[in-house]
Prior knowledge:
Alpha-Beta Plaits, four-stranded antiparallel sheet, 3 helices
Amino acid sequence: MKQIYLALITTDDSLTKAEKAIRELSAEIKTASAGDFKIGMKTQASMLILFTSDVPVKDLKARMKGLAFRDMRFALFATDQLVAGFLDSHVLEWLAARLPREEPKAASRTSR
């Protein structure tokens, strides 16, 4: 199963002022994910992109290093569990389809 990543992108003012940097980061995400990504949230000054990738973490770090510019900052997180959330249904459905499913617990047997 591919690793799920969340890229949190933020700016001081607006995403449009950091358009070049965001375009470069988005291109890296698109390549690393082979197109398996989803915009989870977008405001005037921030954005959350979810994506999957089988690119090793070391290589992702190297690819993403240097992409933050003065107008944009980002943090990249790896996750395997959604604890709680209130996002658009299409985002939650995307996550649910990619998160590992918990195996049902076996019924316990009591000895008599």
